[in-house]
Design goal:
Length: 266
């Protein structure tokens, strides 16, 4: 059943990705409606697949790279659906949904099997830490997608190129607001994730902070987004500078996620 839901998810995400990319070229109320339905259907199948796997394994599927990639994809799509329903930013899906699809496809290429959890992962603090971290990363993914769109729209305005894509992109004000919402949600979640991870580390290894590579880079991510949020609130950072820093922050997130294997997690 898990595999059935998973393959259904991949198929629906593929169709949704094609539909969202098609919306850049030509859009209509019918296409927009079916695009949202395809993605919602895929998200539902993905959620059911994750729940079924969790019931089967008797723990949340977040303990290796294969499971984490799939869950990261799920979190990204869930965050996008939330913002799309609130702000009607269909074009954002053209930048975000392909990322979620690539993560899911990468997840399917990795081998994972049901296994007995090591004692170090049998802690509620681990699950709290992992869930909050993925939630924050999902918001940062949306912020990066918005940042790319912002830079494109800004270029169009600067060069007075008011073509078809310009008409489909949200206003700079709307994108700036979404970016701010992502930061004000993602950074506190990451903060709590780091704190809960430190508590888990203390219970597992006897120290709140062991300065391994993933902990260090997670702290770097925290400082990047803290600086961005601080700049927006106190100095009034807007526009190009904030967009570029948001993209840099997301690149560091991906580098940390894929490149820094945690010594006590995987």
């Amino acid at each position: 059943m898990t595999h059935l839901f998973f393959f259904l998810t991949v198929a629906l995400y593929c169709c949704a990705t094609i539909a969202y990319l098609a919306c850049i070229i030509r859009t209509s109320p019918l296409l927009t409606c079916w695009t949202a339905r395809l993605l919602t259907g895929g998200f539902t199948a993905h959620l059911l697949s994750t729940i079924h796997l969790a019931v089967k394994m008797k723990y949340l599927p977040l303990t290796n790279m294969q499971e984490s990639l799939s869950f990261f994809s799920l979190a990204i799509v869930g965050a996008f659906i939330f913002f799309d329903r609130k702000y009607k930013v269909t074009t954002l899906g053209s930048f975000v949904v392909p990322v979620a699809l690539l993560m899911l496809v990468a997840s399917s290429s990795l081998h994972a099997e049901v296994r007995q959890l090591p004692p170090i992962l049998q802690s509620n603090w681990f699950w709290i830490h992992a869930l909050l971290a993925f939630a924050s990363y999902a918001f940062f993914t949306i912020a990066a997608g918005i940042a790319v769109m912002y830079l494109i729209q800004r270029y169009f305005l600067k060069t007075k190129h008011f073509g078809a894509l310009f008409q489909k992109l949200p206003s700079l004000e709307t994108m700036d607001e979404i970016s701010y919402r992502c930061l004000t949600a993602g950074w506190p979640l990451l903060t709590i994730a780091i704190i809960s991870g430190s508590i888990w580390s203390e219970k597992a290894m006897g120290s709140y902070w062991i300065w391994d590579r993933k902990q260090t880079w997670s702290l770097i991510i925290w400082f990047i987004y803290a600086a961005l949020l601080h700049g927006r609130i106190t100095i009034g950072w807007r526009g190009k500078r904030a967009a570029i820093l948001s993209i840099i922050g997301f690149i560091v997130v991906l580098f940390t996620f894929f490149g820094m294997k945690h010594s006590i997690t995987w």
